Amino acid sequence: MMPELNILMTTSSTLSDWMKQSQAHIEAALTDFLPSPQQTPTHLHEAMRYAVLDGGKRVRPLLVYAAGQLFDADYAELTRAACALEMIHAYSLVHDDMPCMDDDALRRGKPTVHVKFGEATALLVGDALQAQAFLILAQGKTAPARQLEMLRILAHSSGSLGMCGGQAIDLASVGCNLSRDQLEQMHQLKTGALLRASVLLGALCGQELNEIDQAALHRYSHSIGLAFQVVDDILDATSDSASLGKTAGKDAANNKPTYVSILGLAASQTLAENLRIEAHNALHSFTATMQNSRTQRLSQLADFIVQRSA
Amino acid sequence: MMPELNILMTTSSTLSDWMKQSQAHIEAALTDFLPSPQQTPTHLHEAMRYAVLDGGKRVRPLLVYAAGQLFDADYAELTRAACALEMIHAYSLVHDDMPCMDDDALRRGKPTVHVKFGEATALLVGDALQAQAFLILAQGKTAPARQLEMLRILAHSSGSLGMCGGQAIDLASVGCNLSRDQLEQMHQLKTGALLRASVLLGALCGQELNEIDQAALHRYSHSIGLAFQVVDDILDATSDSASLGKTAGKDAANNKPTYVSILGLAASQTLAENLRIEAHNALHSFTATMQNSRTQRLSQLADFIVQRSA
């Protein structure tokens, strides 16, 4: 059952309630947008569902909904874009966890896809999820020219000049002394690109963006994208695997450069807080001309991304 | 340098000349559509270019051009669709060759991507090529609603109900006794889906398709898609690696069911010939209302696919 839309777009619920309801809605939509496990090849479809369903904070979908609230976007189209982004994110996790990459056995508190289904299936799960993401976004009902723009943003942010490119730099950086600028560049591609795409796609479900809006959204998403990674590095260094739902301490174990290894823990915490403030400042561009309530969820998500504990 | 367009769309050149000129044009376009090797991450971009450029018969691009000729399609848009399809095909080869799949060291006469660049990079090369394929197709200049239809066809034919799904069935079939129907279903997904997509995308670059045209194109591409695989199986069983540019005899070595193993060599050759005739028959639907010259290249490609020696 889908929750009522008026609950989801309301501004009166707490962030925690809004997140829970949005996450439940995304879970239901992902269940629908993934091929049925009864359909041939059943083993692949079962594995695709295992990789995507029942897990994660759904940060990218939440950003899509929050940005959609700014421009009064259609809820069904936001959900579609959110699912496409989440499938891209899920495929990247499946491939990252494989033995030839991070070789990780635990993800979202469960055995990783290659551990449960085998490496060959994990490879195909990732490939098929990427295609599925583009398929569902290409089925969207937004004006065709704008729908194409959304597809270009998704493709660009997930390809060699976005997420995959960041992974490649990450691979090459193991055991290297990166400068802070190089570390930032890597993360802006590896995680930041898809987080920025989430904000943009959410906004584009509502309307064409003028240059001022685009610049403000870029500034917001640049800040939260980087903050997300700084906090990930802090949590990796300070939490245990049970709290994280994935292997903790693996950056240090893998000799990977992180914000904590380059700046130290205290300076990383200060950086995350400054990025949170910067994200709020970027939203002032909208509150000058709109009701504050329109930016409410983006504002709260900036806080959540920095203050989360997992 | 791009060859002159009037040479490429002419009907007076031999198939061999037309193929050479089309292949040269595709090579130049792929070179332009791939990220520059000077751009960061350079190692990934170099590996993507290695995977795509300077190799292969470019059967999918040739089918795009041939189908485009039917409907007088724009040459630049055909080239774009052809490059997107070839990038999807190239990514699938990179991932197929990896140790967790077919574990192959030779492709198109060169070391495979994971042998030359390492497994992690090969994984990312495939992922990034898939995104690049959708990016360039989403940049197309065909009417936006039709461009979206082309993107849906590409995504569907390469995902879990197309190419990836066929791979998954292939994986599960090793050492199994497949029926002829099961073998056909596997190949219609694994290779057939993308070949059918090539014909459809080429036609859609020209115009919206009515149901009669769609049915005829489906019948043609169904036949050549299956013929392609039957001939692949025949060549795998009868050729050496040097002629093929890839490891010969690997189906038998891997205990994979093939047309040759199920039907025998002679019956497989008869089947391929019957499919060639069936493809020609499908084209009669067009020659009833159009000049014969419009179907010339599709007709010749059906012959080429069955009569090729590599």
Automatic annotation (TrEMBL), chains A, B:
GO terms for biological process: terpenoid biosynthetic process. It comes from the Bacteria. GO terms for molecular function: metal ion binding; prenyltransferase activity. Its cofactor is Mg(2+). InterPro entries: Isoprenoid_synthase_dom_sf, Polyprenyl_synt, Polyprenyl_synt_CS, Prenyl_diphosphate_synthase. Keywords: Isoprene biosynthesis, Magnesium, Metal-binding, Transferase. One of its GO terms (cellular component) is cytoplasm. Belongs to the FPP/GGPP synthase family. This is Geranylgeranyl pyrophosphate synthase.
